Amino acid sequence: MDTTPIEILLVEDNPGDVRLTQEALASAKILTKMNSVLDGETALRFLHREGEFNDSPRPDLIILDLNLPRVSGHEVLASIKEHEHLRRIPVVVLTSSEAEEDIVRSYDLHANCYVRKPVDMSSFIDVVNGIEDFWFTVVRLP
Does the keyword Phosphoprotein apply (predicted)? Predict the structure, then answer.
């Protein structure tokens, strides 16, 4: 059995949502390692292994909020999908936005899925566990 953890990059500026995501992943049946960054600019430096991130792990999954400081989630998504070494990493947009234009734009930029953040803690943890379960037990990735 492979004991290499699944690498997840969470791009989220809300510390409460970061904590809830960590709790959900810690209670899951799949071995994961989560890195988190608080803004879009830092996410891009992490993904391109720049500066202090020169030895950062390549994520197996990116969970991306849209409403980020410095560089928006849409800009991060566009950058990910235009770079050959990043474009195959699945990107799950997990955001509070229900705006149709955000949904359409995310899919136009090749998001792998768009999930609305639940407002209560229990549902949030269920959603994160569902994302993890789907992407690492149901889907076959390259």
Answer: yes
Q: What is the DSSP string of 13-42?
A: S-HHHHHHHHHHHHTSSS-EEEEEESSHHH
- Asked whether 73 and 42 are in contact (CB, 8 A), the reply is no
CB within 8 Å of 101: residues ≥ 6 apart: none
| CA trace torsion 15, 21, 23, 28 (10° rounding) | -170
| Domains within the chain, CATH numbers bracketed | 7-136 (3.40.50.2300)
**CA-CA distance, 90 to 134, in Å (whole number)?**
12
Helices 73-82/100-108 angle, 10° precision: 20
Q: For residue range 95-129, list pLDDT tens digits in order.
A: 999 999 999 999 999 999 999 998 888 898 899 98
Residue 5 is predicted with a pLDDT of 86
- Quickly count: other Cβ atoms within 10 Å of residue 70's Cβ: 14
Average pLDDT over residues 3-14: 91
Please check the confidence at residue 13 and state whether its pLDDT lies above 50.
Answer: yes
**What pTM does this model have?**
0.93
